[in-house]
Design goal:
It is built from two helices and 14 strands. The chain has 224 residues and is an alpha+beta fold. The protein starts with 7 loop residues before the first strand and ends with a helix.
Length: 224
């Protein structure tokens, strides 16, 4: 059974990640990019927050195992009245307001997604492209035009405290190739798959050994 991981999907970049020329935020060696897509309701937009570089050589902090909360500022012409994540894993809730080191704090001109399952802190290090997909709706009279949000994220992991990122995300990509990603892990083998992989490796090893033994025997027969 495939496992859900927070509000993100760990995906193979070659299949799902679509880099663009749009600006992105790089903080502590981790890259954040926000994609958006309009819907039939002019007050509702789809979004995908794409995160890359966590726990790689570029990551100056490392040891990241989860996301406690993510927040964005409201547009200048409207307030987000609700946020419904696409296929949301359990434990994450929409909160009006920003965040601090303890998670969503309900204060300020932000909207926030709070991981109520943390603590306890996950122990498995994150890797690969992380995609956080959600939708958000503005109050009547609002507009997503020229939306350029400030962004906050609170990580958890092996460090006691991570830098609480609170910066402009660098503009919103006006297309959302990652909005259709289902938030499941698709590149982590399940136990049965690992067993099959192990059996395959054993079989490959036996085949190579048999070939090596045959080649040795042939060489011995060919010697004067």
């Amino acid at each position: 059974m495939k496992r859900l991981l927070m509000t993100t999907a760990i995906v193979t970049g070659a299949l799902f990640f679509h880099p663009t020329a749009e600006a992105a935020l790089i903080a502590d060696g981790v890259t954040y990019q926000l994609e958006t897509q309009a819907t039939a309701n002019p007050l509702t937009n789809l979004f995908a927050l794409v995160i890359t570089g966590e726990n790689t050589l570029s990551d100056t902090e490392g040891g990241r195992t989860g996301i406690n909360a993510i927040a964005f500022t409201n547009p200048t012409t409207g307030t987000v009245t609700g946020g419904t994540m696409i296929s949301p894993p359990s434990g994450f809730t929409f909160v009006s307001g920003g965040l601090n080191a303890s998670g969503c704090d309900g204060a300020g001109n932000f909207y926030c997604f709070d991981n109520t399952a943390i603590p306890p802190t996950p122990t498995t290090a994150l890797a690969g492209t992380l995609v956080f997909v959600f939708s958000a709706t503005l109050a009547a009279g609002g507009s997503w035009a020229n939306y350029d949000p400030a962004f906050k994220i609170d990580w958890v992991g092996t460090k006691n405290n991570y830098d609480l990122v609170s910066l402009s995300i660098g503009g919103v990509t006006p297309t959302c190739p990652d909005c259709g990603i289902t938030p499941v892990i698709v590149d982590t083998p399940e136990p049965a798959s690992l067993a099959m992989l192990g059996a395959g490796m054993v079989g490959l090893g036996l085949t190579r050994r048999k070939r090596r033994d045959n080649n040795t025997a042939c060489a011995a027969q060919a010697s004067p």
